[in-house]
TrEMBL record:
Family indicated by similarity: Belongs to the smoothelin family.
Domain Calponin-homology (CH) positions: 16-122
PANTHER family referenced in this protein's UniProt entry, alphabetically: CALPONIN HOMOLOGY DOMAIN-CONTAINING PROTEIN DDB_G0272472-RELATED, SMOOTHELIN-LIKE PROTEIN 1
Descriptive protein name: SMTL1 protein
Organism: Pampusana beccarii
SMART domains, per the entry: CH
Keyword terms of this UniProt record: Coiled coil, Phosphoprotein
Pfam families hit by this protein: CH (PF00307)
Gene this chain is encoded by: Smtnl1
InterPro entries cross-referenced by the UniProt entry: CH_dom, CH_dom_sf, F-actin_Monoox_Mical
C-alpha cells in the first residue's frame, strides 16, 4: 500500500477547496445560532438568518439576533446586507428583492457575496488568515 499524504489532499487546492473552506468557515461562525444550519450555499441561506448570524458573530452590538424570525425574510436580508455594508464595508452584491423572490437563493450569488464579505472582514483585520 502507498504511504505518505493522500495526493487528493494537497494544500494548494482549486475552487472546490476554497468553496469547502468558505462553507466550513460559515458553518463554524454560525454554529449555535437558532434556526441556522449551514450545509450549502443555497437553501441554508433562504431565510436570511444565516447571513444575520454570520454578521452578528462579528458585530454582536449591531442588532439583537434573538428577536429575529425565520419567516421575516425581507427584514432579515435587509438587516444583514445593511449591516455588512455599514460595519464591514461589503459591497451590496445581492438585492433583497432577488432574495425574497426566490424560494431558494442562487448558490453562485450567495457564494460570491460570502467571498466578498470574507475579503472585507480580512481587510478590516477581523478575520485572521494564515500567511503562506
Amino acid at each position: 500500500a502507498a504511504t505518505g499524504p493522500a495526493p487528493h489532499l494537497k494544500r494548494a487546492g482549486g475552487t472546490a477547496t476554497v468553496k469547502a473552506m468558505l462553507l466550513e468557515w460559515c458553518r463554524a461562525r454560525t454554529r449555535g445560532y437558532e434556526h441556522v444550519d449551514v450545509q450549502n450555499f443555497s437553501g441554508s441561506w433562504g431565510s436570511g438568518l444565516a447571513f444575520c448570524a454570520l454578521l452578528h458573530s462579528f458585530f454582536p452590538d449591531a442588532f439583537e439576533y434573538g428577536s429575529l424570525e425565520p419567516g421575516a425574510r425581507r427584514h432579515n436580508f435587509t438587516l444583514a446586507f445593511a449591516t455588512a455594508e455599514e460595519r464591514a464595508g461589503c459591497a451590496p452584491l445581492l438585492e433583497v428583492e432577488d432574495m425574497v423572490r426566490l424560494p431558494v437563493p442562487d448558490a453562485k450569488c450567495v457564494y460570491t457575496y460570502l467571498q466578498e464579505l470574507y475579503r472585507c472582514l480580512v481587510a478590516k483585520g477581523l478575520v485572521k488568515t494564515k500567511k503562506r
